[in-house]
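General statements about sequence and structure are easier to judge against a single worked case. In the encoding step, the backbone of a single protein was reduced to a row of integers, each denoting a local shape. The record that follows shows the chain in one-letter code together with its fold in token form.
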Amino acid sequence: CRCSHFPLDARRHTHATGPRQLAMASAAATVDKKKKESILEMSKYTNKIVRVKFTGGREVSGILKGCDQLLNLVLDNCQETLRDPEDPNKLTDKVRDLGLVVCRGTAVIVICPADGTEEIANPFIQEE
């Protein structure tokens, strides 16, 4: 074939000429168009307060307004819980108001609803 719109590598160059090739090409196009479904059902937490933990240790809470398949989140009335400057692994009672925030999904580690959760003592810490 002398098609000018294909690369010089002729081994991968094919034309869908027969009915079987046309059916295979159509099936491949249909598979590509299928919408991927998320394994998480985040819609039930829409307009509810959620707590989100990120890589690096930051934690925020806010009203979940929306999300996508990549777990990018939109939080309204968002507040960041500040960490102790002396011990970065420890959270303080201080918060910082952030307002409307878009959180990148690749940085999200944990998402949990704020309703029905409470902090408990760490059972693995040995008392001295």
Q: What stands out?
A: Residues 5 and 13 are 10 Å apart (CA to CA). The radius of gyration is 25 Å. The first helix runs from residue 19 to 33. Helices lie at 19-33.
